Amino acid sequence: MIPGSDRDHPTFVQSFRYAIEGLFTAIRTERNINVMLVLGVVTVVAGIAVGLDPVSWCLIVICCGLVIFAELCNTAMEAIVDLATQELHPLAKRAKDIAAASVYVLSLTAAVVGVIVFSHALGVI
Prior knowledge:
Layout: H1 12-29, H2 31-50, H3 54-84, H4 90-121
Helix pairs in contact: 2-3, 3-4
């Protein structure tokens, strides 16, 4: 595809197919994506069990979606760094570590939100 032109530009539907293909590639090849998806399913089951209210569901869905999004971005950034250099370069390590840290911080934030939401649903707070 030529930047700025419509020549060889994928159709709207094809763009979705590429996105789905990317998601399935990540699910097949990345352990952490699978861990996040399993934790998301466990959270949904727990939410059903405690009968979360609509606002709590929104918070849970947003947090789960953001964590998966961050993990996908981290995976993409790592692939880009690997494409740019195969050697152990300090800047490559720095980029990968910072990208991983962003997922870590977001995951901790989502966990705190989950604790608050479920504590409230269980009448603890």
